[in-house]
Amino acid sequence: MSAPSTTTAPAPSDLAFIRFVSVENMMKLVHSIGVETMLKDLSRYIEDDFKRWEQFDKTPRVASHSEEGVIELMPTSDGEDYGFKYVNGHPKNMREGLQTVTAFGLLARVDTGYPELLTEMTLLTALRTAATSAMVASHLAPKGATTMAMIGNGAQSEFQAMAMWAVNGVSTLRLYDIDSAATDKAVRNLSSQGFKLVACATPEEAIEGAQIITTCTADKQYATILSDNMVGAGVHINAIGGDCPGKTELHKDILARSDVFVEYPPQTRIEGEIQQMPDDFPVTEMWQVITGTTPGRTNDRQITLFDGVGFAIEDFSALRYVRDQLRDIPYFEKLDIIADPDDPRDLFGMLQRAK
């Protein structure tokens, strides 16, 4: 056996390192930009990508379901960049002191396949989900809407409220959760944000006078958070609770008398509220509204319903936004994650020289 080489391994090139945004650095990034500004920026990035919807690869998320929850991969590409998110949804986790949703994501260059960004996405998913809701509401909610009912006051609720305020000017929140401690938490967190806050004892009380109704619950079951008689003419329903086959929040009669808007029908028909309806139940894709090819809200009595399940393009927009911010804001670490030998044919030699 030959003696170990004394040749020093070449230092990795810049391509060997990608920018990694930890939870700590994501929080620093958000506060350096400002929560309201970031929500407005994300809403704009998402809208811009919806305008070029036809450029993207589109596929329903790859989901692994269990009795306890779901683990999903959400990939897409616009031909220049490729992105994916790993995300789980485990409603039981809250009872064990764990997050219901956790996530991370990656953005890579299509021309080389080299990753360029790896980031936490638990916080970022909450921000992009809220930004998507607010962007959609800017197209579908009644003009001048100032009051939102927030049914489900868990980890998403404050983000939803802040985005609706930042993008659409919602200033009154009527809050309800089956767990009053969750409502108390939301009131406490939002009390300094300039809202008029009304803690409600029932969902019926929460929707009184609300022009926007957001349902955001997580239980993995068929549920009736809103029954048909609770929904009057002219409202916008933002149904964005954790979605999967066998999990709904709205009575199907609400869907039957609403104009329903979705992200990507092949995914929403499996996971969204419309899984209760026939396969040919009519829906409108949001990108068509945003590009002006299909009308959104057309009159004051129309019930608009966003059956939002979350789609990979929204995560791509969020990843693209974070990458762009890191050009000027250095809240990241360099992560040595790509093997980069000086001779691309000599991966083994690189290994040997590292002894």
From TrEMBL:
Coiled-coil zones:
none
Signal sequence, start to end? none
Concerning InterPro entries, the annotation shows: NAD(P)-bd_dom_sf (IPR036291), ODC_Mu_crystall (IPR003462), ODC_N (IPR023401)
Q: Which domain of life is it from?
A: Bacteria
The cross-references to Pfam families, in alphabetical order and at most eight, read: OCD_Mu_crystall (PF02423)
The cross-references to NCBIfam families, in alphabetical order and at most eight, read: PRK07589.1
PANTHER family from the UniProt entry = KETIMINE REDUCTASE MU-CRYSTALLIN
What this protein is called in its record is Ornithine cyclodeaminase
Source organism per UniProt = Shimia litoralis
